[in-house]
Specification:
heterodimer; A: alpha/beta; six-stranded mixed beta sheet; 19 helices; 33% helix; B: mainly alpha; four-stranded mixed beta sheet; 15 helices; elongated
């Protein structure tokens, strides 16, 4: 055993999974992560981030190559490494039938934390996670964000020599996300704790000293966030849409021009985009159509997107969204209100999940529901889909009162749930046919719609494959195609982009904006605040109450001085919680 | 397979005990809070005891039997008189066979006893025959009925032989061997020891089959692995609570056996307890092995039912006498731990201790435990590689 200054030292690490199709999960990883710093692993789904972390933790052995964690050959002596490190898997293993305190005590016992140290450590963890009031609550009854915080507290019952976090913030709202990061950063500063974290959020990676970009089992690039900004340097611009034009319309035009534009996202009412190398200003004239354009400094996300896009172009396989000309644009201003909600209330026993909420959604709108975990989003969502009856209030969907005419309303909606809810052992075509049949399509109509869906969602090449074995991006497209097989007027999407990498998210939103432009009404929940910029209007909920409603611009200005949607969101929630007398937060999701 | 000893054998014993204690407390808490566990661990045994004790019985009571007396001689009447006094048979006298057959077809009687017209004459020549026709649709009832009738005739034979000092003239009669140690002729006595086997199998094999799979499914295994915990500790912590539940079930059954059904205990209690503990350890380790191999609760529970519970029910000799089954099935039965435990439990309750049997069966159970727990240990390596 050698003592080295490296936290992780990997040389040509290769890991293949038995029976897996395609290349190895890790294909020759060579890395050295110095001691005592915060390191981020970023990259698309299936890049090998989780596998690498598991290898570092000694949970798997590499097929070839050498891997040292804290100077120990981890393949030969996994237990020695595991005695020293703490690891929080993507799905952290909380025992849901044990209370918060029992979970903490269990992990403290397993790690051999002495009783006297324990009290102080627990106090600190509980106050850091704001959970001191809930120590007797069963872990299963905590909201998603709180579970995640408890998971972190359990991994940190003692000071490890290395902390490994695998996507700790997937499905976690911005508020809990900020709190989790505050805890991690505090530990890094106070204890000099080295941390390796994999994440899909670039703003999280930006907080790290060292960022490793992975793709297809290889390290694409690594360096400080500043260094990784460089590939996009001088190529980032902000374009301001003309009067009367939606930012997302401009964004759609930009991102469709794959030759000249590497990436484009709506942001604060404008569009931020990255030019491809060698693009001249006049190349974009036909797209910008006179929109004002300013250069802007590049960020980590721009650099990573540039690296990934350029790599994908080299390899010649790109998840291109074939979009028909998106010039079709309905005038949404005076079209019909498809969803009307007045004084909607839902109670579970004495707990009010949704309190007196009113809003309406017009045809062709993209309508976003935002809020912390446990805010009542999912409950509102389920009531709108007719999956859950309202306790009181008025609810009309596509002209049908959900109290009296649930079935006809359901025929007009499509629903994509958070989890993959299709039949994994049916093929793509079989799933489409089944759901079409379930929605009552006649045979001819059904065949036509299945054919259309195969083309529209680029599923044809995999049409006979079992859907459970499809790559993530295909699964998501299939889920959408299935929800749209009966051509519903309204599409409900529950956290469709959780745990999805930035490239796939761009493709997803491009599809959504096209659908909206064609007249489909979209209701969507998300934890990515920047995605709210794609919406026509959004609501922000917390503890069952509606805190803000309006266009992204209106909501931003409600939180005066917020530079972006994330800040606006945090500000609005903070203000609302301060004004509430008890300060109690909704915990039950 | 064991690459480094340190991955499972703890070096420091005080750490070992501390972790084992923490994990065991955790398992107990989970066991108590999960209502489905309680249902299987406590309510199911109670339900089974009551069901098997009161509801299910292989005995017949007051089975209607037609008696055709074609021979009116006093000797012939005397033969069937033996049937009348029994609790098991309710005789119905008819005069012609045709009448009896009609009753049988209408399922108004379960059997026919026919004394042919030449019975007295043949008996005088030393070979009197009594015809017994049994309704064969219900094999268990048929077998019992056959047993009772032949017992009754045999009894008559004996009495007659005793009084006359003559060789038995009746056709070959024999007692069914399973009645040997069942002096009250009660199948409850015979079923209760088997019931204990079933309950121990359920708790040991079925409940534990899910516990490791559950940790895999809920993702807790991954978190547990990256702690100083050794896989041996994980296994032991799972065995201890379920061992306690199994012994609780055993106690429940013993109390019911003695208190409710007055089953005698001919052997010594401690032999029965040791046999039960050994079998429980075997069942637990088999459950853990299934769980560790399946990593999926649904699959594990299905496999557990198929390879522990059903064989214990069907093939261990609990319901069907192993002497009467084909050799192939006997071979299967001979590798089932339940077979040996059924044998031991029946011995303890109904026959009394037999040292040879105890030594042989205990040795077999210990060997089976050693093999299975090693398998479970090898299957619970601290790795996500499969």
């Amino acid at each position: 055993m050698t003592t080295t200054a490296l936290t992780v030292d990997a040389k040509d690490v290769v890991k293949r999974f038995k029976g897996a199709v395609g290349g190895p999960a890790l294909n020759g990883i060579t890395l050295s992560i110095p001691k005592g710093q915060l390191t981020a692993l970023v990259g698309p789904d299936g890049a090998g981030k989780t596998t690498l972390i598991r290898l570092i933790a000694g949970l798997m052995k590499p097929d070839s190559g050498s891997l040292y964690t804290l100077g120990i050959d981890v393949a030969a002596k996994p237990q020695e490494v595991q005695d020293l490190i703490s690891y929080m898997p993507q799905r952290f293993g909380l025992y849901e039938d044990l209370s918060v305190m029992e979970n903490l005590n269990l992990y403290a016992d397993l790690h051999g934390v002495p009783m006297d140290e324990r009290r102080e450590r627990f106090d600190r963890m509980l106050s850091m996670t704001d959970m001191a009031a809930f120590t007797n609550r069963l872990a299963g009854n905590l909201s998603g964000g709180m579970k995640q915080k408890l998971g972190l507290a359990c991994t940190l019952v003692r000071s490890p020599r290395l902390l490994l976090l695998d996507e700790p913030t997937v499905g976690v709202d911005p508020l809990s996300r900020r709190e989790l990061w505050r805890i991690v950063q505090q530990l890094v500063e106070e204890e000099g704790l080295p941390v390796i974290v994999s994440t899909a959020y670039m703003d999280e990676a930006e907080r790290c000293k060292h960022v490793i970009v992975m793709t297809e089992g290889q390290v694409l690039a690594q360096g400080t966030p500043d260094e990784l900004c460089r590939p996009a340097k001088g190529r980032c611009f902000v374009a301001y849409p003309r009067e009367g034009e939606l930012a997302r319309t401009l964004q759609a035009r930009l991102i469709d021009d794959k030759r000249h534009v590497l990436d484009a996202v709506p942001e604060s009412g404008a569009v931020r985009f990255i030019q491809a190398g060698g693009t001249e200003p006049r190349d974009l004239e036909g797209i910008l159509l006179g929109a004002r354009c300013e250069a802007t400094p590049s960020r980590l996300e721009d650099g990573v997107m540039t690296l990934l896009r350029e790599r994908a172009t080299q390899d010649g396989h790109e998840d291109a969204v074939e979009t028909k000309s998106s010039s079709v644009q309905l005038d949404t201003k005076d079209s019909i209100e498809l969803i009307k909600v007045r004084d909607l209330v839902r109670q579970f026993g004495s707990f009010t999940a949704v309190a007196s909420t009113s809003f309406s959604v017009r045809r062709g709108e993209i309508f976003g529901l935002l809020g912390p975990n446990g805010a009542g989003k999912t409950t509102t969502f389920r009531m709108l889909c007719g999956l859950l009856p309202a306790t009181s209030g008025f609810l009309e969907v596509a002209g049908f009162n959900l109290r009296t005419a649930r079935a006809p309303a359901r025929a007009r909606i499509g629903y994509v749930s958070q989890k993959f809810a299709l039949y994994g052992n049916l093929s793509v075509t079989e799933n489409l046919t089944f759901f079409g049949g379930a929605y009552g399509l006649g045979r001819q109509e059904l065949n036509a719609q299945v054919e259309r869906a195969l083309d529209e969602f680029q599923l044809r090449e995999k049409k006979d494959e079992r859907s459970g074995e499809l790559p993530g991006g295909f699964k998501q497209r299939l889920a959408m195609a299935t929800a749209l097989i009966h051509r519903p007027e309204i599409l409900f999407l529950d956290e469709p982009t959780s745990g999805i990498d930035p490239l796939a998210r761009r493709a997803f939103w491009r599809r959504i904006t096209t659908l909206a432009a064609e007249g489909t009404t979209i209701i969507v929940t998300t934890h990515f605040m920047e995605e709210a910029e794609y919406c026509d209007r959004i609501v922000i909920q917390d503890a069952g109450r509606l805190l803000a409603i309006g266009t992204p611009h209106e909501v931003r200005s409600q939180a005066s001085g917020a530079a972006n949607m994330n800040e606006a969101f945090l500000e609005i929630i903070k203000k609302a919680r301060e004004s509430r007398p008890t300060g109690a937060t909704a915990v039950e999701a | 397979m064991m690459q480094t000893q340190s991955t499972w054998l703890p070096r420091n014993l005080s750490h070992f005990w501390r972790r084992l204690r923490a994990l065991t407390i955790k398992e107990f808490r989970q066991l108590i809070r999960d209502k489905s566990n309680l249902a299987i661990g406590i309510f199911l045994p109670i339900a089974l005891i009551l069901l098997f004790g009161y509801g299910l019985s292989l005995d017949i009571r007051n089975a209607p039997v037609a008696i055709v007396l074609e021979d009116g001689a006093p000797m012939a009447r005397d033969v069937v008189a033996g049937l009348r006094g029994s609790d098991y048979i309710a005789p119905r006298y008819v005069t012609t066979m045709a009448e009896a057959e009609a009753l049988m077809r209408g399922r108004q009687v379960d059997g026919i006893v026919r004394i042919p017209s030449d019975f007295s004459r043949q008996l005088a020549q030393g070979r009197g025959t009594v015809q017994l026709v049994v309704h064969g649709t219900d094999a268990a009832t048929a077998a019992s009925l056959r047993g009772y009738v032949s017992a009754a005739i045999d009894g008559w034979n004996k009495r007659r032989a005793d009084s006359a000092g003559r060789v038995s003239a009746a056709p070959g009669v024999e007692l069914v061997d399973r009645l040997w140690f069942n002096s009250a002729n009660s199948s409850t006595w015979y079923l209760v020891p088997g019931l204990i086997v079933l309950i121990m199998t359920l708790v040991g094999g079925f409940l534990t089959s899910m516990v490791i799979a559950r940790e895999w499914e809920r993702g807790t295994m991954e978190a547990l692995f990256v702690t100083p915990v050794r896989s041996l500790e994980i296994l032991l912590a799972k065995i201890i609570p379920y061992f306690a539940v199994g012994m609780g079930g055993l106690t429940l059954c013993l109390v019911a056996a003695r208190g409710l059904f007055h089953v005698p205990l001919h052997g010594s209690l401690w032999v029965l307890m040791v046999s039960s503990m050994l079998y429980l350890m075997v069942a637990l380790s088999l459950g853990l092995l299934i769980s560790a191999a399946a990593r999926n609760q649904f699959l594990a529970s299905q496999v557990a039912v198929i390879i522990t519970f059903l064989p214990a029910l069907m093939l261990s000799g609990f319901l069907f006498d192993l002497h009467n089954v084909p050799t192939g099935i006997q071979k299967v039965a001979s590798i089932l731990p339940a077979t040996y435990y059924v044998e031991l439990a029946r011995m303890s309750f109904l026959a009394g201790d037999n040292l040879n049997l105890i030594v042989r069966d205990w040795t077999i159970l210990v060997v089976q435990f050693a093999v299975l727990i090693t398998g479970a240990r090898l299957r619970t390596k601290k790795t996500l590689d499969r």
